[in-house]
Amino acid sequence: MEKKGVGKFAIRVWGWPTLLLCLVQWTLMAVFTLTSTDSSKYFLEPESGREYLFESILGFFFVCYLWILVSRYSVMTEKKLSIIAKWGTVFLTAVFVLVSIGNLVRYLFKG
């Protein structure tokens, strides 16, 4: 039986996107660490605009990562992706958008 290196857990499907996500996350953390104030006690001050911005950017990268995995799996295999995986990705994207909007509204109108 010939090994093609393609399947749900094949390194060809998720290896490079995962490495890229890790490097982007480290870069984002480095930028936020280097731009923090000296008087700051934390990497990101709780309930600050920087925290919401960091969470939004990182969440966007994770949602993109999910879509990249779904598309790579669909392109690299002859098998169809399960309906649970497709709709799970759509559901997680919708939840991310709703939570991001909620966080923005909460930050703007907090008293």
Q: Helical region count? A: 3
Order of helix and strand elements from N to C terminus: HHH
Q: How confident overall, as mean pLDDT?
A: 84
Q: How is the quaternary structure best described? A: single chain
Structural class: mainly alpha
General description of the model:
The protein is flat and about 55 Å long. Helix content is 70%, strand content 0%. The N and C termini lie far apart (65 Å). α1 runs antiparallel to α2 and α2 (49-76) packs antiparallel against α3 (83-108). 2% of the residues are buried. By secondary structure, the protein is mainly alpha-helical. The longest helix has 28 residues, at 49-76. It has helices at 11-34, 49-76, 83-108.
What topology does this entry show?
Layout (H helix, E strand, L loop, with lengths): L10 H24 L14 H28 L6 H26 L3
Helix pairs in contact: 1-2, 2-3
